[in-house]
Automatic annotation (TrEMBL):
Region (Disordered): 1-31
Pfam family of the protein (one): MFS_1
Domain of life according to the entry: Bacteria
Name of the protein this chain belongs to: MFS transporter
Topological relation to the membrane, as annotated: Multi-pass membrane protein
Transmembrane segment boundaries: 38-58, 78-96, 108-127, 133-155, 167-188, 194-214, 226-246, 258-276, 297-322, 328-352, 359-380, 386-405, 426-446, 477-499
Keywords: Cell membrane, Membrane, Transmembrane, Transmembrane helix, Transport
InterPro entries named in the record: MFS (IPR011701), MFS_dom (IPR020846), MFS_trans_sf (IPR036259)
Domain named Major facilitator superfamily (MFS) profile: residues: 42-504
Gene3D superfamilies: MFS general substrate transporter like domains (1.20.1250.20), Multidrug resistance protein D (1.20.1720.10)
Subcellular location: Cell membrane
Keyword Transmembrane: yes
């Protein structure tokens, strides 16, 4: 099946790859051994990028109540400490995929390290909550520059038959970062102070910048082509309106005028985005990518998995702190089964990828995620023993790690190098859109059960000190949240099942 998309000229595409010809075999062709050694060095660089981003996100998921109590943040401010990062990173992913195609992937990738590190330093110096929100948005710009290019760099560096192994290690590194992140975040929140939640990113960022500068080769710049500024602005506005509506629906109710306006703006902007993007020569949302069933279903399955997966650590950490009354460090230990499951499943799935198709890994991973979330919905009680809760978290983590390895390999293997930057940025944007909606929807479902007057107590993790009645109301929100996420994960499994078919071949228009 053929999907027609606009792609950069060939001159734009050689980003990373095998060593120069003078280090190749005697007949002038690149030495496969040298190429593979270089590919694994590339993995070490890109994995450091994921460590940087993974630790930054997972530490704050657990330590959010500590930050909220320090600034005495309102429920809206509390939500936007998380949502500002997710929104900006999602809305700029395709932009930096295009910018990297034009200015050089290495340069943009390394600039992302520098910007993320600087923003992390400034976030720890925040004098008030809205300055912190702004620095989180600046972190997101740096994260976008990293995420939009890391997968492409790996795909260009590895031989096709070894790509699943490199991708498994790459994704597994994110899982390891998310594995240590909750524990680090809880420990920092209880001992060193909330500022170090952000400052811990600084040494990792400096190390990644230095190692990336020494390892990644300089790459030729392609022909300059216009960036879709109008498309980026419209996508950002639409996501902002939708995210605001979702985040306020829990406390205000879905029929509140403010919530209705947010949803209404989103609905009005969607057809406008379609019209503008169809006319744009290099659209931020290349709708022709969805012209083929296989690639369309694979990307939609990724959206569903991200929506079901991304808020799980945050929701579980709130459960342990707000409902059970434990400290941040104990909550960090409690959510470890999620990243542990991902960390174990991702490299194993990468090895299995030499025997099983990426399609099979994607479908099985989605089903496992749905089963884990379903188990959590059944065991969401304030006095429940930890074993069934930990089993549900672990199963959901295993499913996500398996799905991510299979789905990423399935999509990236189908793309020619000339379109990798833009289409990968689009792929990651779709996935990050699921992350944004996951956090907004999950927080709304959980806190909506207790009403607006108690919502601040949930974010500050002090609700368990009030009354058993308030806690039981909150548990209703947790059960509903897990059940909705399980349904979304099951829908993702159905979409993944429809992504079976021949490799998609994207041709240049």
């Amino acid at each position: 099946m053929v999907v027609m998309v606009a792609a950069s000229p060939d001159a734009d595409s050689p980003e990373t790859g095998p060593p120069d010809s003078d280090s190749g075999s005697p007949d002038g062709s690149p030495d496969p051994g040298d190429r593979l050694r270089y590919a694994w060095r590339v993995v070490s660089v890109t994995s450091l990028g994921l460590v940087l981003i993974g630790i930054a996100s997972s530490t704050l998921n657990v330590a959010l109540p500590t930050v909220v109590r320090h600034f005495q943040a309102s429920p809206t401010e509390s939500g936007w400490i998380l949502l500002s990062y997710l929104l900006v990173s999602t809305a700029t992913l395709v932009l930096f995929g295009r910018v990297a195609d034009l200015l050089g992937r290495r340069e943009v990738y390394l600039a992302g390290f520098a910007l993320f590190t600087l923003a992390s330093l400034l976030a720890g110096l925040a004098p008030d909550v809205w300055f912190l929100v702004a620095m989180r948005a600046l972190q997101a710009v740096g994260a976008s520059m990293i995420l939009a290019n890391g997968t492409v760099i790996i795909t260009d560096a590895f031989p096709p038959e070894r790509l699943s192994q490199g991708m498994g290690v790459y994704i597994g590194t994110l899982s390891v970062a998310q594995l240590v992140g909750p524990t680090i975040g809880g420990l920092i929140a209880d001992t060193a102070g909330w500022q170090w939640i952000f400052w811990v990113n600084v040494p990792a960022g400096v190390l990644a910048l230095v190692w990336g500068t020494l390892t990644l080769r300089r790459m030729p710049r392609g022909t300059r082509q216009p960036v879709d500024a109008a498309g980026n602005a419209l996508v950002f506005a639409a996501l902002s309106a939708l995210l605001f509506a979702l985040s306020e629906a829990g406390s205000r109710g879905p029929l509140d005028p403010v919530v209705a306006v947010g949803f209404g703006v989103f609905v009005l902007l969607v057809p406008l985005i379609v019209v503008v993007e169809r006319r744009a020569p290099h659209p931020v949302l290349n709708l022709r990518v969805f012209g083929g069933r296989v690639l369309a279903c694979a990307n939609l399955a990724s959206l569903g998995n991200a929506l079901a997966r991304s808020a799980l650590v945050l929701v579980a950490a709130l459960y342990f702190q707000a409902a059970r009354g434990v400290d941040a460090f104990t909550a960090g230990l409690g959510v470890l089964p999620v990243p542990l499951g991902m960390a174990l499943a991702s490299p194993i799935a990468g090895v299995l990828g030499r025997r099983l198709s990426p399609y099979t890994l994607s479908v099985c991973g989605s089903v496992l995620s749905a089963l884990g979330l379903g188990l959590l919905a059944l065991t969401a009680e304030a006095d429940m023993q930890y074993l069934p809760i930990g089993a549900g978290l672990f199963l959901a983590g295993v499913g996500s790690g398996t799905f991510l390895t299979g789905n990423t390999t399935q999509v990236m293997s189908a793309l020619p190098s000339g379109s990798l930057g833009v289409v990968n940025g689009f792929r990651v944007m779709i996935m990050n859109t699921g992350m944004v909606l996951s956090v907004g929807l999950s927080l709304s479902l959980v806190t909506g059960a207790v009403g607006p007057e108690l919502r601040a107590q949930v974010y500050a993790a002090t609700l368990s000190r009030l009354s058993p009645v308030a806690v039981e109301q909150l548990m209703t929100g947790f059960r509903l949240c897990y059940a909705v996420l399980a349904g979304v994960a099951l829908g993702g499994a159905v979409l993944a099942a429809f992504a079976r078919g021949k490799q998609v071949d994207l041709k240049r228009t």
